Amino acid sequence: QYSNGQSYSISSPRVVLAMGSTMVRTGDRALIEQTLIHEIAHGGMSQSLGKDALPETPWLSQAHSGGSVTDEPLAYIEGWAEFVGSYFTGRTTIAGDPARSIESNWYAKRSDGNFKSASELIRTEGWNATILYWIATQARDQNAMWKMSQVMSRTRPQSTMQLLSNLVRYFPELAPTVNRVLYQSSGGQISS
To answer: Which helix (H) or strand (E) holds 108?
Structure first.
């Protein structure tokens, strides 16, 4: 509500970026650009799924990071946004994580270097971003990014695994890439 008593409401997605945030104050232009794209991706997901069909998760208002193991809905929501930010900026890491973390599959491993379990992987936003990025870049000539967006709008998946299952159903030509990426990025634990 405005100070003059008038009310307002927002019925479409919007980008919220606190100009005084620590991230903005770093002055890291690449990080700021990636964050803006990330926030726009949240709006795109909201438009694709419909604001009443967004995945629900108690983790949404809690602290999380690329390597955090949370739940499938948050890993999907944040993984999608991190993927889109990386895809369009070429900055393949999340926030202050090591450079090229998405390209190197860094989020799939524990601190001891061993792979997380399959259950942990599908609940890790950085790994979700990694597999979407790998699929989109390895099948770029097949328009994988556009196809993922189309499937999101048509089927309203509630997790990354549902998105990928629907992707190969609608676009079977992507099945070899999706299967290879899931298998390789999970240390052989997951295939579609």
So the answer is: none
Q: What does the alpha-carbon distance between residue 103 and residue 100 come to, in Å, rounded to a whole number?
A: 5
pLDDT in tens, 19-73: 777 878 888 888 888 888 888 888 888 888 887 888 888 887 777 788 899 999 9
Strand, helix or coil for residue 191: coil
Longest dimension (CA), the chain: 60
DSSP 27-80: --HHHHHHHHHHHHHHHHHHHHH-GGGSPP-TTTTS---TT-B--HHHHHHHHH
Is residue 46 within 8 Å of residue 54, measured between CB atoms? yes
Residue 147: name the closest of 164, 131, 125 by CA: 164
Residues in the chain: 192
How does pLDDT run across 101-133, given as a tens digit for each residue?
Answer: 999 999 999 999 999 999 999 999 999 999 999
Asked if residues 148 and 97 have their Cβ atoms less than 8 Å apart, the reply is no
